[in-house]
From TrEMBL:
InterPro entries: GalNAc-T, Glyco_trans_2-like, Nucleotide-diphossugar_trans, Ricin_B-like_lectins
PANTHER family in the cross-refs: N-ACETYLGALACTOSAMINYLTRANSFERASE, POLYPEPTIDE N-ACETYLGALACTOSAMINYLTRANSFERASE 16
Bilayer topology: Single-pass type II membrane protein
Localization of this protein: Golgi apparatus membrane
Native species: Poecilia latipinna
GO biological process: protein O-linked glycosylation
The protein, known as: Polypeptide N-acetylgalactosaminyltransferase
Disulfide bond listed as a keyword: yes
UniProt keyword list: Disulfide bond, Glycosyltransferase, Golgi apparatus, Lectin, Manganese, Membrane, Metal-binding, Signal-anchor, Transferase, Transmembrane, Transmembrane helix
Length: 510
């Protein structure tokens, strides 16, 4: 039995060696010593000297990992963190870790772009970019796949470096070992800082003129980078992001996302993908054209570094995760820039249903603090709708925003009203609740009549089923002036919000 096994191993070894030789001979690929490759090349009858460029291109196609990974030992890196049998594959990362580990680090994915994208051309000379990836306890297999997809599917000249910010993960080696891969640098925070401050740290050490922020569980698709860098090169105030395809959290299938979506939100500052408004959709004759977006999802985007710095980077008082995309989006639009989604750039992302890591201050509280900062700094009088939609935000601590208000003034940014009118007119201001009520003074009543009317008449007595004198705080002083038109004397504290009612009375409003 032993003998048979030994024979089998010997035969396999010989077959492997022969196979390797055959492969090398076929490919005229340099073996471990350059002289052998040269003699092989001559042996195959290529009398002329090898064109170095040609050989490089050929090798790029077939043997990318050998070239890219340098001294990095992928197998050992991944094997050290395999899922133990019996463990829940979803527990640690909120996606199926077993499936991710099984996939390998360089699988092929479908090119999900519109077919016309493949024929677009970009400048031969594009500036390079620093890729900034922050993470906290990311799974090794997803993190590595993110990095390798970047190295495999980007023109090497465009990748200045890949900066990993390890936001105080449990195992420092998750990050450190990866820095053996050429172009990959690893920075580790000495305490948990969160996504926002980690990104700023990455941006501050970046050496390229263009920053590319990337999430840590992504796979970039064919030609993802060129369209984005091209747009930013043409106008440095553009902030661009790809269409974000979906990587299934269960089986890691790569699924194309709709190309008709843009980023939007509701008044509670909850991000959502929404259809491009119909007029814009009709006007789009070319599916490769950029899509203007009111906000970006925030995980993946490209931005000029000097523009990022000019605008004051991020609000570094925001913690862990959430809300920073609104703050950045408002800032970019209101301070002279623009946001776009580029349909010819596609990046897959594992969307999860929960955060696998914990928030030191609690998830909800952190989100409220961050979005409240965004609302307080940027939303002017419209922040009242944020508070109505998120009453729990009232009274929650959010720190000082004085610096950011100063910055906003210094940058001469436009008011939020401008943003509402020009960037996101589709976001409806909540209808001011019609004050279906009666204001009584003496025998006279000012009362609502149907949806559109307001009338002053003798009170109809207690028979009316309308609520009497709904007391509300006034929104604006002018409301009172218009009420005064009716010769109505308001007592100090009986206050009604008349604005929406009065607007509808013909001849009363200027
Ligand atoms: Mn993510």
């Amino acid at each position: 039995m032993r003998r048979i096994r030994a024979n089998a191993i010997a035969i396999l070894t010989v077959a492997w060696i022969l196979g390797t030789f055959y492969y090398l001979w076929q490919d005229s690929k340099p073996a471990s010593t350059p002289s052998s490759s040269a003699s092989q090349a001559r042996g195959r009858g290529h009398g002329q000297k090898l064109v170095p460029g040609r050989l490089e291109i050929h090798r790029d196609d077939r043997t990318i990992p050998l070239i890219l990974l340098g001294g990095f030992d992928e197998k050992t890196y991944l094997a050290a963190k395999q899922l133990k049998t019996g463990d829940d594959p979803y527990r640690e990362h909120a996606f199926n870790l077993q499936e991710s580990d099984r996939l390998g680090s360089e699988r092929a994915i479908r090119d999900t772009r519109h077919y016309r994208c493949a024929s677009l051309t970009y400048d031969a000379e594009l500036p390079s970019t620093s890729i900034i990836i922050t993470f906290h306890n990311e799974a090794r297999s997803t993190l590595l796949r993110t990095i390798k997809s970047v190295l495999m599917r980007s023109p090497p000249s465009l990748i200045q470096e890949i900066i990993l910010i390890d936001d105080f993960s449990t195992d420092p080696e998750d990050c450190q070992l990866l820095s053996q891969i050429p172009k990959v640098r690893c920075l580790r925070n000495s305490r948990r800082e969160g996504l926002i401050r980690s990104r700023v740290r990455g941006a501050n050490t970046a050496s390229a003129t263009i920053l590319t922020f990337l999430d840590s569980h992504c796979e970039v698709n064919a030609d993802w980078l060129q369209p984005m860098i091209q747009r930013v090169k043409e106008d440095h105030t553009r902030v661009v992001s790809p269409i974000i395809d979906v990587i299934s959290l269960d089986n890691f299938a790569y699924l194309a996302a709709s190309a008709d979506l843009r980023g939007g939100f509701d008044w509670s500052l909850h991000f959502k993908w929404e259809q491009i408004p119909i007029e814009q959709k009709m006007a789009r004759s070319d599916p490769t054209q950029p899509i203007r977006t009111p906000v970006i999802a925030g995980g993946i985007f490209v931005m000029d570094k000097s523009w990022f710095n000019h605008l004051g980077q991020y609000d570094t008082h925001m913690d862990i995760w959430g809300g920073e995309n609104f703050e950045l989006s408002f800032r970019v639009w209101m301070c002279g820039g623009s946001l776009e989604i580029l349909p010819c750039s596609r990046v897959g992302h594992v969307f999860r249903k929960r955060h696998p890591y914990d928030f030191p201050e609690g998830n909800a509280l952190t989100y409220i603090k961050n979005t409240r900062r965004a609302a307080e700094v940027w939303m002017d009088e419209y922040k009242q709708y944020y508070y109505s939609a998120r009453p729990s935000a009232q009274g929650k601590a959010f720190g000082s925003i004085a610096d950011h208000l100063t910055l906003r003034r210094k940058l001469n940014c436009k008011p939020f009203r401008w943003y509402m009118e020009n960037v996101y007119p589709e976001l409806r201001v909540p209808e001011q609740e019609a004050v279906s009520s009666v204001l009584k003074q003496g025998g006279m009543c000012l009362e609502t009549r149907g949806r559109d009317g307001l009338g002053l008449a003798e009170c109809r007595g207690a028979g009316t089923n309308r609520p009497q004198s709904q007391v509300r705080r006034p929104r604006m002083k002018v409301c009172f002036l218009k009420v005064a038109y009716f010769k109505f004397q308001l007592q100090r504290d009986s206050i009604v919000n008349f604005c929406s009612l009065i607007k509808s009375i013909p001849g009363v409003l200027p």
